[in-house]
Amino acid sequence: MRDLFAWAKQNQDRVIPKSAISKALNYLVSNETGLLTYLKDGHCSLSNNIAENAIRPFTVGRKNWLFINSP
Q: What residues does the Transposase IS66 central domain cover (predicted)?
């Protein structure tokens, strides 16, 4: 992995700035610590689906609860 991040940093300036490969390299370099954390500990989740599903009832009900006590 160290070689991949070193290669990405080295080639970041060699590609066309707004190309897809440039965006991919920038993403890889800017998220290096998070990606390495995930690789070191497999229990970390890459998605936040559990948190999203936990708050969904409140966000869905927000509009309904706004006028619950109004005449």
A: 1-70
Residue 11 lies in a domain: yes
pTM for the whole structure: 0.60
Give me the sign of the Cα torsion angle 38, 36, 15, 22.
positive
Token pair for residue 42? 């497999």
Q: What is the DSSP letter of 43?
A: T
Instruction: Dump the DSSP string for 15-41.
Output: S-TTSHHHHHHHHHHHTHHHHHHHHH-
pLDDT digits (tens, 9 = 90+) for 27-67: 999 999 988 888 888 787 778 899 899 988 888 788 777 77
Total domains, the chain: 1
Residue 37 domain boundaries: 2-66
Report CA 53 to chain centroid distance, whole Å: 17
